[in-house]
Design brief:
The protein has 210 residues and is an alpha/beta fold. The protein contains six helices and five strands. It is globular, with a radius of gyration of 17 Å. The two termini are 32 Å apart.
Amino acid sequence: MLDNLSDASTTEKTSSELPRLSLVYPKHPTYGVDIFISGKEGASDLELLRKSGITTVVNCAVNLDFNFVDQPKLVSDHRNSIHGPGEIRYYKIGLIDGDGNPDTQMLAAHYILRAALEQVLPEKPSYPRRERGGVLVNCRGGRSRSVVVVSLFLHLTLPDQFETLERAIDFVREKREIPKDEWYKAPKPVLAASAERAAGWARAIESGKA
């Protein structure tokens, strides 16, 4: 079944020779949405996000932020403050690409991604972005933090297809077009190990044994 999944990666490459945007898993059977990965170039390209049907961005990087607020429509009650509803629903995880993350943060990353897919917003003017479209998971390069978070999500939500985290990571690497000679460092081994522990905790939580 995995071999039949289409890959809608854009043809334009970044300086690191990865696509600006990669469709990793089309139409997740539980959530019905496309799941993408990118680095900063793809995540910051609002036109590309709209063209790809992406309505939600989950940013895995602690050292990278985006302003999706449409400037002419900004809501501001302070002269030097820009805030308000963005053009994209935006969630932030804030992982370090290497050592330094508490193990629980990887578990939180999984549940934040799930929340981005499951959260139901109220019918109020202050919650204008209620569209259900594709979800983009990004980090700076789209080769480490985002790869691990999406792999963990696929492993836990589609265990029949991704029996092990390692298989999910290999699948995501291929869809992201990461060269095989970089697999030893993309994603960082310390992040993969953290995701393995997070997977165990998540299974315990879901089974009621935590």
